Model the fold of this input.
Amino acid sequence: MQKDELLEFLSQNEIEFEYQGKDALALTKVADLEKATSQEIAFFNDPKRKEQLKSTQAGLVILKAEFSDLTVCNRLIVKNPYYVYALLAQKFNPLPSQKGIHPSAVVDGSVVVPASCYIGPNVVIESGVLLGEGCQISAGCYLGKNVTLGKNCYLGPNVVIMNDCVLGDEVILQAGCVIGGEGFGFAPQAGQWIRIPQIGRVIIGNHVSIGNNTTIDRGTLQDTVIEDDCIIDNLVHIAHNVKIGQGSAIAAQTGFAGSSQVGKQCIFAGQAGVVGHLKISDGVMVMAKAGVTHSLKQPGSYSGFPAIPTGEWQKNTVRAKNLQKMALQIKDLEQSIKELKNQLEEK
Done:
């Protein structure tokens, strides 16, 4: 990437910037700040790495104006370095973009595959599937009957999308995702569990990214819904009838029980858990390993099990560390009170 190409790319993405440095650029990829070479782009966003910024050999460093004097490298000054780095990383490392249908793929005759799409080896596409332009469907994927994919979706290897599910535009499903599998629905009767057919769908909005081996169950009667702009990590489980609000972020190994309703712009750290049939306000952050056992009606940070406001949980944790000391103090106080009582009785 030459300087003119870089500046044009930034302008196309409506990024306000200031370039400081040489006119001659020959950038080939992105790299870590510490190990970047003269042909690589790095970014600086952590004041703890100032020494690495001073010594970096990067061909271009993306950073904020307040740190521009700490390096003699070519500098791209922006308000949000991490965002600009992400765009450039995408530029240098685009998702696969192929066209055509592999000979081993099995595509029902009712399906119209746009010429801009790619259908990989051993893919199976059932009847009634609708494919938007530019979809990339990797090896081993399965699309059940009447599935709908919007434009420019990417399905990694061995993704399964069961019947009637709907994906919006530019949805990314990494390897091994299962969308629309049967939810965990059983009715107890005389010591047995009677299966309840799950006849809802999974509806996924636009610009959603879902990580490897994540499972999202179809609804029992109503739909399971993932709204626009959500990002979901690997190994997340979302049960039947759950709704995840717009722009929410969910880290690995988080689980949502059935019919939970999550607001917009929420964040769930790793291994968090949500009990079924709860409502979670917009703007809630659930910290790692927290267990949400009741509805959260106010935005803010929550921790612990059961999840409570993080500030309160931190105070309780500090006290918990001192339980042994406090127990001994209470024992001493009880002994002192007993002795004082005996003295009073003797008088």
